[in-house]
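Hi everyone, sorry if this is the wrong subforum. Our group has a chain we'd like a structural model of before ordering constructs, and none of us has done structure prediction before. Sequence below.
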Amino acid sequence: MKGGSYMKRHLLATSIVAVCLPLAGMAGGFASTYRLGRGVVAVTNTQVNSSWATVAVLVRFDSETNGTLAIRRVSQGNSYTLGSCVFATATNLVWAAERDYSFGFGDVLLIESTATNGVIQVMLKND
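Answer:
Right subforum, don't worry. Here is the predicted structure as tokens:
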């Protein structure tokens, strides 16, 4: 039977791996912050020869807020819902992409919220 110090070292190593793996996915990535003034944030890929993929969307409200949030991909005039939720007394929301959603030239990441008292940080990576 292994002692308590082994368990502590193992848990620490596991915690470090759990923190570092998501950050490794951000290699070559970037983040941008937008004010949620009108309830809509649209991020368009304007680069003809490159594409990017979503990693996460972080939302911080200035105070506890109720409302709805939807994250969509708009491509060639078609809108696809990647995630949505109804929230109550929230100050922070996090949406993490389940997979790489690739955004080519002209594609739009559209974030819509009924609450407008906060900021959104969009985390993307090179595709």
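For your construct planning: Residues 4-25 form the longest helix (22 residues). The beta strands are 29-35, 40-44, 52-75, 78-96, 102-103, 108-113, 118-126.
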